Write the structure tokens for this entry.
Amino acid sequence: MNLTKAQEEKFKKLGINSWCELSLIIPHSYEDLRLHNKLQIHTYQLIDATVESVYRSANSIQITFFAHNFGHSVTGVLFRPKPYMLHQFTVGSRDYYYGMIECKTGHCTMSMPRKVTNEGYITPKYKSALRADVMLRFIQNNLTKENLKTEGLKEDIIDEVLKLHFPTELPTTTKELDSKSVNALKYIELFSYMKKLSTCRRYFKASTCRSSDYKDWAKTLPFKLTNEQVSAIEDIKIDLQKDVSARRMIVGDVGSGKTMVILASAVMMLPNKSILMAPTTILANQLFEEARRFIPNIKIVLVTNKTKNIDLSEFDFIIGTHALLYRELPKAGLVMVDEQHRFGTAQRNMLEKLVSSTDVIDNKILVKPHFLQFSATPIPRTQAMIETAHIDVSLITSTPFKKDISSRVIHKNDFQELLGHIKSEISNNNQVLLVYPLVEQSEVIEYQSIDEARGYWENNFANVYVTHGKDKEKEEVLKEFSEKGDILIATTVVEVGISLPRLSTVVIVGAERLGLSTLHQLRGRVSRTGLKGYCFLYTNQNTSERLENFTKTTSGFDIANLDLKFRKSGDLLKGSNQSGKQFKWVDLAEDEEIVKSVKKDLVALKE
């Protein structure tokens, strides 16, 4: 796109990068500067008029016009006029004037008339970082069919959006756009966004392009892999055979068996090395134990802050926390990151860099390992489809076994019943998790904090453990609780991946304050081994449609859609705006079909 210096400056001021994005800055209203021969009351209208008299008082100016297009006299009124306004009205002159017309008992007035030179058109009005007249000229001179075509937009979409900027009929306000216009705006918004995403994707030579088969290994497992696990593994198998470094995100619901996909990937990478980074020692340890159990014949090592300096090049599969970032790592064919959203982009890149190399033979081309990231935060299917513009995505939406969890919204008057339930679960050797919104007391939040509530539980129950995000002993507390505890009091820190096989009940205090996907993650901590599970959402609100909807579904992907409906999606590109609205027109919960058509058209553009 070749822009002149002046165009570039305006793009910068408007915060846009393309003609497509310019077309999305649509008018907020329109002025009908065409001449009509019929008087319309209570409407802004243009008159072709001769000034017959001008009368000035302390706070206003009254002008008598003769409107030739109506054959009727009209009184113009200017309140608190500025000096320059006077020059627009010379007795005896004939010009075009525009203003709001009102008529009472046969007498018509035009409030705040102004002289107009560009009559004959419907003129759009813009609110933008540019002055209104500058913006109008910029659009009129630059927003052309040709410019939009150069960016790859389809003709019917271009025609539809140009109607908004160059109308031949007076449109209603933007609040009442017809569905064709709205769909065109959605299409362009997605088109420019996904195009931008696809340019973020860069391709590197892979450090290895072969993969062993996983099927013999899968036969050794004491259970059968689900169809979706197999489908994700097959996607990865194809990735590993390419000479371009893979970039794939595997999104699986809580308990969907992502660990098996991780292990299958390490098996397929043999005899090359694989590295896996997990966000916590507990999780790294859990993955290490599962790897030892299910792939016993390969050399596996666990790296945490406490690991002595050992030569990692002797091992086939290196599992660790971010302690890996500070070690000498051997070259690996595959790098995996579990719970990728818990690491910053910088940390993920650093891990990749540690095991990348420069291929001198190939003119110093950067050679990178295949890269897989795993996430247990389900994303709506539409979002997954958008993400595929810059990374490949595999979804695992089903779980290996059906969880039996009853969810229910509870209030203050249900407390005695809740206590009875907790006592009964503990007597059955099950564990209970109580999640509080804060560690310390707060004036703003009407729920108890951990500090205020713990006394009650510690006085009335034995084996009560307490932890939270700032607790340095957090991992030790969780470990000890899993062996000896009855009740764990925590903040949302327990959200990620720790396995507590005896945990049957979670009580979330102030549940309406959390996003549905966080509630789903917390609920996913119970019933990990087929135990009957319970999730209680405690709220002081009398009713909550959002929480009631949450109790009716256990699928993380359905919940991600509900979350969208109630909170709106965050920004995928910057990853910062978690619950604000990234798109002005697109609704990720509703617009799957438009995403599909944009995706298809973008693929066709590349070919």
In short: The chain has four domains: 5-28+136-200, 35-116, 204-396, 405-553.
